[in-house]
Amino acid sequence: MKYESRNPATSELIQSFYFDNFPDVSISKNAFRNWKKLSVEERNNSLQKVAKLIAERKRELAALITLEMGKPLSEAEHEVEKTLTLFDFYSKNAEQFLSPQYVETSATKSYLAYEPLGIIFSIMPWNFPLWQALRFAVPALYAGNVAILKHAPSVPQCAKAIEQLFHDAGLENGVFKNYFLTNEDAAKLMENAAIAGVSFTGSDATGSIIASQAGKSIKKVVMELGGNDPFIVLKDADLESAVNGAIKSRSINAGQACNGAKRFIVAKEISEEFTQKLINKVNQLKVGNPLENSTQIGPLARKDLQQKVLKQIKTSVEQGAVAHVSPQQIPEIGNYVSPTVLTNVQPGVLAFEEEVFGPVFSIVEANDEQDAINLANNSKYGLSASIWSTNVEHVSTLISEIEAGNVFVNEVVRSNAHLPFGGVKHSGFGREMGEAGLKEFVNIKTVFIK
User: Sorting pLDDT into bands at 50, 70 and 90, what band is 407?
Assistant: First the structure.
């Protein structure tokens, strides 16, 4: 796939970019030699200059995000603002997290030291172009590593803008580098002895290939892959709160969020009422130009993604699901999909089995609480889940039964700089953010002094 900037709302090709030559890793190696010697405080001083530029360029960065991948401008601005929380969290906590951890043994002194690995190669997706790239890079850089980015081919201007931030902040060339790479060059780069680790966010199919390629060279990897997240509504749930949560979780980014709810598993006693309330709310979602303030659902990021979602809906209906499509008109030009509620979804129906990356709400009726848990776990994915109930004490006893990396109660799932984020099963392994994310790409060195 070529690197090209194409407006999802109009299908207009804005700019194409040539592939870069194979990276000169000596640039990153030289930068690492200097960067790792800095104290956490000194690294923080440099990275805070990057954060300052992000804040100053919020409108410019948000406009680029909307232009290249189509999310409403208000959501793009929120993405930029959220990125700043990474710098804030690690500025306050990285030094403590990376301090030696002393352990009492028979030695005079024994401790764990946290030391950077080197050059970390990241392959990032298009759906949150700024947030995804920096939620990897910020903790990696605070830990003393340097980063190379291969961004999604559909967001090249975002990728260039991210690299420009580090350049304009005065960081040494090589601390953060962006390259427009072919898949073949990306594979060769992973094999290069200078690369110490790989971080990938994307589909489980591609993640399997990348993990295999990195594994052949014995490289540490973090895989943040897809999700088919359950949104469990128990019979005692506050329905208004649950429906509003469902709309918020599924409509953000036009449904193109790995941790957005996909399967709405609802107790049969309240299923009809919940479904009708949800359909009413879905029908009110404003679809349109992502630059307009009133727009809630913009276009999907690419034409092939739009066609895939439409095919998934069609196949699910052929398998027995019933589609309740929003009656409002959507633009004829652009990669738009009408918000759709699918009812009568059950195991075996495509919308239950696959991740649908679009504004599609799949309703699954559960016979009882245990059936809801079983349905939630009946997936190859295990990224996130939410449970909705007024009996929080009881729900707390169910959390351990959910096979997911994140479980939220009476709240939509969202990533947070303070907390580690990642999944189990086909949703990947390793964590981003929080203390755990900071320590993914460090050498935990055991020191024993007699």
Answer: very high
Farthest-apart Cα atoms in the chain, separation: 75
d(CA 438, CA 143): 6
Q: Per residue in 87-134, pLDDT tens?
A: 999 999 999 999 999 999 999 999 999 999 999 999 999 999 999 999
CB distance 120 to 176 below 8 Å: no
Q: How confident is the model at residue 2 (pLDDT cuts 50, 70, 90)?
A: confident
Residue 16 pairs in a beta bridge with 4
Mean pLDDT calculated for residue range 287-294: 95
Question: 3.30.70.920, 3.40.309.10, 3.40.50.2300, 3.40.50.80: which CATH number matches 230-416?
Answer: 3.40.309.10
What is the domain partition of the chain in residue ranges? 3-225+427-449, 230-416
| Catalytic residue from among 68, 75, 79, 258 | 258
Question: pLDDT at position 69, please?
Answer: 98
DSSP codes joined into one string, 4-26 = EEE-TTT--EEEEEPPPPPP-HH
CB within 8 A of 61, min separation 6: which ones?
A: 54, 76, 80, 130, 158, 161
Instruction: Round to whole Å and give the CA distance between 384 and 415.
Output: 10
Reply yes or no on whether 258 is catalytic.
yes
Residue 1, pLDDT above cutoff 80: no
Residue 48 has pLDDT above 90, yes or no: yes
The two three-digit tokens of residue 347, written as one number = 């195991």
- CATH of 3-225+427-449 among 3.40.605.10, 2.160.20.10, 3.30.470.10, 3.40.50.1100: 3.40.605.10
C-beta of residue 169 within 8 angstroms of C-beta of residue 43: no
Selection from 299, 233, 244 nearest residue 269 by Cα? 233
Q: What is the DSSP string of 391-418?
A: -HHHHHTTGGGS-SSEEEESS-----TT
Question: Which of 128, 125, 187 lies closest to 152 in space, CA to CA?
Answer: 125
pLDDT cut 90: percent of the chain above it? 99
CB 248 within 8 A of CB 291: no
The residue from 68, 75, 224, 369 that is catalytic is 224
Q: How high is the mean pLDDT of the chain?
A: 97
Mean pLDDT value of segment 283-309: 97
pTM comes to: 0.97
DSSP state of 172: P
